[in-house]
Each structure stands twice: as C-alpha cells, then as structure tokens.
Amino acid sequence: MRAILLAGSFALLGTLLGTRLAIAVLVKKGYGQLIRDDGPTSHHTKRGTPTMGGLVIIIAVVVGYALAKLVTQSAPSPSAMLLLFLFVGLGLVGFLDDYIKVSKQRSLGLRTKAKVAGQTIVALLFALLALQFPDDNGRTPMSRGVSFIRDINDWQLPVVLIIVWVLVIIAGTSNGVNLTDGLDGLATGASVMVFGAYVLISIWQNNQACGTVPGGKCYEVSDPLDLAVVAAALTGACFGFLWWNAAPAKIFMGDTGSLSLGGALAGLAIMTRTEGLLLIIGGLFVIITMSVVLQVGWFKLSNGKRLFRMAPLQHHFELKGWAEVTIVIRFWIIAGLSVAAGMGIFYAEWVAGV
Questions:
Q1: Do residues 253 and 187 touch, judged by C-beta distance below 8 A?
Q2: How far lies 119's CA from each of 82, 87, 170, 267, in Å?
Q3: Which of 170, 188, 258, 302 is 20 to 30 Å from the Cα of 181, by its Cα?
Q4: Tens digit of pLDDT for each residue in 272-291?
C-alpha cells in the first residue's frame, strides 16, 4: 500500500514540475501544435501551443513506479513490467507521429498503415509475453478467457483468437483516448478518473485474491497490488499534467500521451480480467469513439449526409455554439458517472457472489 501512495505522489510531482520545463524546451524548439483548417475556427488560437507533452507523463510514470519500488525495496512484477512496456511502446508510436508533424510542419504525421503497424507490433508483443511468466499459483498476467468482471465461465480461447481479441481491445482503447483528446483537459481529466478506478479495483482484487481468500468470490489475477502501483502512478501523472493542460492549455499531450494512456488502460483491463467492464468505466471514450463510427457509417449509407456537424462528438457541440469549458466539464461529468456505474457493478457482482 505504501508503494501505491509513493508512486502516485512521485508521478504527480514529476508532471507538475516537469511539464513546466517541457513547455520551455518545446517553445524554444518551436514544436507547436498544428491545427486542421476544417476544424472549429476557435481552435486556430491554439496554433503553436507546445505538443508532445505525453513524454512528460511517460517519464513521470516510469520514474514514479521505479522510485516507489526502490523506496519500498520490493521487486517489480511481470504484470507491472508488461503494462509499462505496453504504455511506453504505444507512446513511442505516438511520439513518432507527433515528431513528424512538428518537424515537417504538417497536420499528417505517420501514414495510417505505419501507425497501425506500430500499434499492432507493440500489442502483439505484449499479448505473447503476457501469456508467459506464471506466478506461484500458475496464473499468467493475461488469461486466455474473455472477461467482464472476471473470466466468463471456465472455457479458454485458442492462443490465436485470444491474441486477436487483445489486439482489438488495445487498438480500440488507444484510439478511443486519442479521439477524446480534442479539447483542453478533456482526455486528461477523464483519464484521472478511470485510472483512479483501476487503483481501487486492483487493491480490492489483491485483498480478495484466491491465493489468500479462497472461495467463489475471489479473484484470479496475477500481481494485482503491483498493477495498483502502476495505476496510481498513471493517476498522479495525469493529475499533475492537468494543471498545465486545463483550459487554456499551456501544452498538449499529443498522440504521445493519448496512445500511451489508452494502451495502459487496455492493459489494466486485460490483466485485471475486466475487459467488458472497461466499456462502462471508460464510457466517455466509448461514446466519443462511437460518434466517429456512426458519422462515417451514416456518411457512406446516406450518400454524403452527416449525422453530426463534426466528429468526434465534442466538436459537434463546439459547432453548435457551446463554450469549450462547458463541453469539457459536462463530458467530465459523463466520465465520472461512467466510472461510478462501473465501480457499482464491480462491487455489486462481488456482493452477489455470482
């Protein structure tokens, strides 16, 4: 428990102090955000705002976790290391995308195929490795079952199918956070709530682990307490970054931050066996992603008509005349309600013992 508090505190300080330094460096190098000409006109005032702030989040999380383990003199677990690998790996893909944009001064970074290939390679390596490293009870960081709050029934998928399933979850979640990162502080604030929920979920699973509290209500999760340490570092890092990312944003996280945070969220859901529950806890990310899917689908089916004025959904409300801060706060409320609903379902399932 001490490591959880330390990791969150170190990561919070890391982004709170480190982001200020990053802003100065990025401004000096001229690494500013490029704005799409077809987007809301209010965004043109953001042109040149430093981007790639996700680098600070990544460094703060990794250093925060490492310092917490060093102070508590505890060894890193395979589950936590795999989660950090997925987090940093997808962050690297996002960094390449951001760097190409700012260095070549164009709104297009990595080509779509290259970006998808990078995400797929990182996710594939994570999936293959997560099926290894069994603990003392024979549990690997990732199971071969499909889960909601725990694995559904006892049946297991073939290795090929479970890897494909994991690739879908990681791609969907990382791109969902990426689509949400369109307004000052929106994705960062929502991420604080969701990662905070996973701190509580992992602690609860550790306290009710089958290795210590056998029974029908126990959880078959490998290294839940160490997953809570990483989740706390992610929560703290996003909280500190929000100080600088809230409207009017002094810095953007860029794809470096959004892809890495989305990957970490997917990794937590996979390794805590809460893949289905993620759809509820991360409800805001789901809603915004679906707005894009519906917009594209309706556009094709209706011969060029639009369901929303613009997708993702937050930009639809901007074009309707809502103030940016109003949209962000209301979407934060939706994110909070989604987290509350997910946590309620998680606890209710334990109480019911089903």
A1: yes
A2: 15, 11, 8, 13
A3: 302
A4: 999 999 999 999 999 999 99
